[in-house]
Design goal:
Layout (H helix, E strand, L loop, with lengths): L9 H16 L13 E7 L10 H16 L4 E7 L38 H15 L5 E4 H6 L4 H9 L1 H9 L19 H10 L19 E3 L9 E7 L4 E6 L5 E5 L6 E3 L1 H12 L6 E2 L8 H11 L10 E2 L2 E4 L1 H6 L7 H7 L2 H9 L7 E4 L3 H18 L4 H11 E2 L2 E2 L9 H11 L3 H11 L14 H12 L14 H5 L3 H13 L6 H15 L10 H19 L7 H8 L1 H7 L3
Parallel strand pairs: 1-2, 2-3, 9-10, 11-12
Antiparallel strand pairs: 4-8, 5-6, 6-7, 13-14
The chain binds zinc ion.
Length: about 575
């Protein structure tokens, strides 16, 4: 199969690079068709708590590249490593503090949070992520590291690492910040921030080192989980290469034993050896990592040397991806101690929109995901892009990002059949408080030429907008239509304002659609100024329009602002508009 490079966007460029690297590793095989080995890209997630929306980039980046490779007809596997055999490090905010007793156990050996339907901690937090990934159309092969380690899948790799522990130790020593002989800080080496934070968070227990350097009887890259207490506060105190007999003692419960590592499946390689071992084991060609993994001495840099020097394999192409922030939700969720997850984002936005946010930005560009009013502008931009793509006027890179957002090599993602503007839907459900019959009545009047006949046409976008209004918009920003006319305000109006209201009320019947009412509300001040309804607004006219709009908002919803007026008028309904405007 011919390799096509479209070079339109960052995804294409990485796909080119990954295919070229796979070809270099297996010359002539990757692009030749049926017998080709799969190109492997990888992500890793630790289900140590709710998986933050920011971590979605760890999966989206290889997903988009894998998807582009598949679109070119080349088989590609995206493996997602669930780092569920990692130790339970700390109890997240909002969880019963008594879970502290499980610190040091594998995540799959910690009980799930109270009330969970899942058998353990890792499964509980994995499940929510898996659901979101399915909705996002992300195909991957999930690999449980608990299953791998406890089944002995890595036995040869573990014994190999133990045999080569001196070489591993030498690589790690190039980056160690403390001199092994003296225990004093080495000079001229900056401690990477992630490690410093890790140590500050955990103290200096034997288990705090992720390179296994804290052992007393020399260096060992393997750490057993104690068979008595199931925690990793263990110290390897002896190893015999010939028999593979390993002796450890547990700092937590004082248990000590000697096991044959050739049969023992109750421990794991330390992280800085575990990661490169898996690159070699899976033949990973592409695996990005967060900025915190890319500093000197970090696991990606050290791993590159270990994979070559110890495992005789190659480091994947590993771009560093920048931080993804959230706007709007942090304040609202912090009271509950929660963090926004991809599932939270998918409750307020459709999957293609969320995919688009990642597809259109290069991995090294940071961006924010909007939970606040910004989401309405974002949706406007998305709809504009869809229109440009439809009429063929989108720029190539924009069109590529759009195509990656709305579907994958496997097909199109579900979409809303009638994608009405998100801000209109949000305004309507704001006013109707989610009352279906009323919502349908209003939506059917938006465009009388082509009326909405069923709410299902507008779903799931309608449901996302409704969820956004009810969960993300503070009560004081919600719209409440007046129950009774503001008699005092109506009685105080001057001749000019009364005239404007009269013109509006007289025009309602002939303009009862979104477009019609838009013409009407902007036209009333023009007519009053003796201009034609099509006249270009002058600065004076804009002042008059603003004053008129503020009057309407006050009479309808008792505030100076609100949803766009044409939408608001349709939502309130002609009869009630007449009552509230004194008609
Ligand atoms: Zn123990």
């Amino acid at each position: 199969m011919a390799q096509q490079s479209t070079e339109t966007d960052w995804v294409s460029r990485f796909a080119d690079e990954v295919i070229a690297e796979a070809e270099r590793r297996a010359p002539g095989k990757v692009t030749s068709g049926a017998s080709a080995p799969e190109v492997v890209v990888a992500s890793g997630l630790s289900p140590s708590g709710p998986i933050h929306l920011g971590n979605l980039r760890e999966v989206m980046t290889p997903h988009l590249v894998a998807d582009e490779i598949r679109r070119r007809g080349i088989p590609c596997t995206h493996i997602l490593s669930w780092d569920d055999y990692d130790r339970f490090r700390k109890v997240p905010a909002g969880i019963d503090p008594s879970w502290e007793e499980h610190i040091g156990k594998p995540l799959t050996a910690v009980p799930a949070p109270p009330g969970s339907a899942y058998p353990n901690w890792a499964e509980h937090f994995k499940a929510a992520m898996e659901e979101a990934l399915a909705e996002l159309g992300i195909e991957y092969r999930g690999i449980s590291q608990t299953a791998q380690y406890t089944s002995g899948a890595y036995r040869e790799q573990i014994l190999h690492a133990m045999r080569h522990r001196k070489e591993i130790d030498a690589v790690l020593d190039r980056y160690r910040t403390k001199d092994k002989a003296t225990g004093k800080p080495k000079k001229q080496q900056q401690k990477p921030v992630d490690e410093a934070e890790l140590e500050a968070a955990e103290g200096s227990g034997a288990a705090s080192e992720d390179d296994g350097s804290a052992g007393g009887a020399g260096y060992f890259p393997y750490k057993p989980y104690c068979t008595a207490c199931n925690k990793d506060f263990t110290k390897v105190i002896g190893y015999d290469d010939a028999t593979t007999e390993l002796t450890y003692e547990c700092v937590a419960c004082a248990h000590s034993e000697t096991v044959a590592l050739s049969e023992f499946d109750h421990g794991k390689l330390v992280w800085k050896v575990d990661w490169p071992m898996r690159w070699a084991y899976e033949g990973v060609v592409f695996e990005p990592s967060g900025v915190d993994h890319s500093s000197p001495g970090s696991s990606f840099v050290v791993g590159g040397q270990i994979v070559r020097e110890v495992f005789g394999a190659e480091q994947p192409i590993g771009p560093m991806y920048a931080f993804v922030g959230i706007s709007g939700m942090a304040k609202m969720s912090s009271s509950k101690g929660g963090v926004p997850t991809p599932g939270d984002a998918l409750k307020i936005m459709e999957a293609p929109l969320l995919r688009w946010l990642y597809a259109r930005r290069k991995p090294n560009q940071s961006f924010k995901i909007a939970f606040d009013q910004e989401i309405q502008r974002l949706y406007d931009e998305w709809d504009k892009l869809a229109a440009k793509v439809a009429d063929g006027t989108a720029q190539p890179a924009d069109a590529a990002a759009y195509a990656r957002a709305v579907g994958t090599a496997a097909g199109e993602l579900p979409r809303t059949p009638r994608p009405l503007p998100y801000r209109t839907l949000a305004s309507v459900v704001d006013i109707t408080a989610g009352h279906d019959e009323q919502t349908l009545r209003i939506l059917s009047e938006l465009d009388p030429e082509k009326p909405v006949t069923s709410l299902d046409e507008t779903r799931p976008r309608l449901d996302k907008a409704e969820h956004w209004i009810t969960t993300q918009v503070p009560a004081d920003q919600r719209t409440v239509v007046r129950a009774e006319p503001d008699a005092e305000l109506l009685a105080s109006l001057d001749e000019q304002s009364r005239g404007a209201l009269r013109l509006l009320l007289d025009g309602l019947d002939d303009h009862w659609s979104l477009d019609g009412l838009t013409t009407l509300v902007y036209g009333v001040p023009k007519i009053q100024a003796g201009l034609s309804p099509e006249a270009k607004p002058t600065p004076e006219l804009k002042v008059a329009q603003r004053a008129f709009f503020a009057l309407l908002y006050n009479l309808l919803v008792g505030r100076d602002t609100g949803p766009r007026l044409p939408t608001l008028l349709l939502a309130v309904g002609a009869d009630r508009v007449r009552t509230l405007l004194g008609g």
